[in-house]
């Protein structure tokens, strides 16, 4: 039996899909490291669970992992999928002498300023950036790149505290809101104009063995800044040829530049209006936004299992054939409060129901979500990318959420 620690501070449904993938492998004893215990059905996945006070704190996680090690013997792997957990998990590995991504590498994938420095050092294009601690830093950077620019925390996620800044007054106010100062730099970036995409890999022993793309309609930041937009992610059926080949090369080089050995990666990139490419960011973890699920539908294979095979067994069962285009529509509406009613579901079903492979409709009574992932989702698939795109348009035009 191999002892595999899976850290899941909070038993989110998406997190538990990965736990299920790992629990289902041969010869794995799945050991949970949690802050909030999972519900009973999910708890059965684990052979043992240790609860820690702060599931995002490296010291607490190391203590918890040592308890599991004492009870069960040497640890084979330390896993977890949340973005804000990646460096701490690397510290647990380091403390227990477990193979896998080390703290310095994990940090390169977390710290957007260091990441961009490293990418640029390898000749890979990304937005110009500056860590801002004083107003004079800010002025210098504005003189260099002009407005608009993007301001964000150096290790942010999910577009939190990330804004398009158009004027010096906005910049001043936003730096204050971020409490920017000598001990707390804010990250300013040149504003990239163009279309945003993602690029996912499975990488094993430093070799990229699986590659996939999505296109964002529109960019997550635009979704956050425009309340009536419902976000759509499309996995085109065909991801070879012009428009993708150069991005694929860029993505593979980015994985190598940051030095990932084994795992899933999720890169965001832009095709600028002039056709050139720029990397937005890259994470050493599976993507969120149901992109792993969408890949399962595109390839007709269980990508959660593929993740587990990679990070537990160093194995890849592919190549997989991309049989379908897939679209994910994230449902949300304008307003405040709680979901009151969802309109237009029957009409949407009459038009595109035959393409739907999975959906989660907003649940009345639930507080309106803050994130661009909204209050629910619909996933469709078809061999024809244009059919999927049209179905996405139909869904977001037809389904309306009312809050009260
Ligand atoms: N330099 C930039 N130019 C244009 N848009 C950006 C830029 N940086 C970020 N964004 C937008 O903001 C979103 C969030 O920024 P990102 O760096 O990906 O941080 P995170 O996803 O970790 O919050 C991106 O997906 C993109 O839509
Ligand atoms: Mg991002």
Short account of what is shown:
By secondary structure, the chain is an alpha+beta fold. Helices cover 35% and strands 27% of the residues. The strands form 4 sheets. The chain has an 8-stranded antiparallel beta sheet with strand order 13-12-9-10-11-14-17-16, with helices on both faces. Strands 3-2-1-4 form a 4-stranded parallel beta sheet, with helices on both faces.
Q: Would you kindly provide a written description of the structure presented here, covering whatever features stand out?
A:
With 404 residues, the chain is α+β, with helices and mostly antiparallel strands. Helix content is 35%, strand content 27%. It contains 14 helices and 18 strands. An eight-stranded antiparallel β-sheet has the order 13-12-9-10-11-14-17-16, sandwiched between helices. Strands 3-2-1-4 form a four-stranded parallel β-sheet, sandwiched between helices. Helix 2 (40-43) links the parallel strand 2 and strand 3. Magnesium ion is lined by residues 268, 281.
